[in-house]
Amino acid sequence: SVPSTSPFTFRKLAGCTLFITGASRGIGKAIALKAAKDGANIVIAAKTAEPHPTLPGTIFTAAAEIEAAGGKALPCVVNVREEQQIINAVEKAVKTFGGIDILVNNASAISLTGTLETETKKVNLMMDVNVRGTYLTSKTCLPHLRKSRNPHILNLSPPMNMNPMWFKNHCAYTISKYGMSMCVLGMAEEFRGEVAVNALWPKTAIHTAAMDMLGGSGIEKQCRKTDILADAAYCILTKPKSFTGNFIIDEVLLREEGVKDFDVYAVVPG
């Protein structure tokens, strides 16, 4: 994990409230657990209330893990396609914890398919969840974030590279993820000095249930654990709000922070 600069561990996110979309599993849950170790409050804004037939975890199992790790959890059923569900969860979060300090836009839909193979309902899903969901969740949280001492929005989205290679195999997906990145570009400037807005993206594939479905068996050998994104997110979210408008790659940031051994993050070391 990231080396602490001080001899004693300073719990930087103690008492902070994080609103994390898609936090019932995968990367969102890993970021939640990392913050929970500091004693943070976590709003688990995710869809899965009943156990899913193929995907692990619900908002309630995630809440139990967060509390066991030392945090406070508020599980909320939120499909980011439904604006009213976002509004209700934000209101509940503010009522429960007194405000919101950090928003992590992690919820995403993915279909790595070509233009002719991507069904319209899949296009709609990716645009609704990735672009519109990120935009609306940010919009709903911003009035509360502006009242925080060190507010952050963190989108799990890539640097905008206009090389056609990133578009040709999955045009709709890339457009939707770049839509999230454009939210960073615009909102970082719009709220400069008030709220930090940054993007985080992995250098390698990350082993999650989604990756198992996409990549098939044996894919985990090419992946890193979700911990690398949790550690990178923690670094970003504990920086001052003047750190804004950045498109961060997990490994690059962690190397700058002094991490040398990346084998600890490999599912299969080496």
TrEMBL record:
The record's subcellular locations are: Mitochondrion; Peroxisome
Q: Which SUPFAM superfamilies does the record cross-reference, listed alphabetically?
A: NAD(P)-binding Rossmann-fold domains
Alphabetically sorted, this entry's keywords are: Mitochondrion, NADP, Oxidoreductase, Peroxisome
Q: Which family does it belong to?
A: Belongs to the short-chain dehydrogenases/reductases (SDR) family.
Q: Name one Pfam family in it.
A: adh_short
Spell out the protein name for this chain. Answer: Hydroxysteroid dehydrogenase-like protein 2
User: Its domain of life?
Assistant: Eukaryota
- Gene Ontology annotations for the cellular component aspect, listed alphabetically: mitochondrion; peroxisome
Q: Which NCBIfam families match?
A: PRK08278.1
- One Gene Ontology MF term: oxidoreductase activity
Q: Which InterPro entries match?
A: HSDL2, NAD(P)-bd_dom_sf, SDR_fam
Q: What organism is this sequence from?
A: Bucorvus abyssinicus
Q: What is its main location?
A: mitochondrion
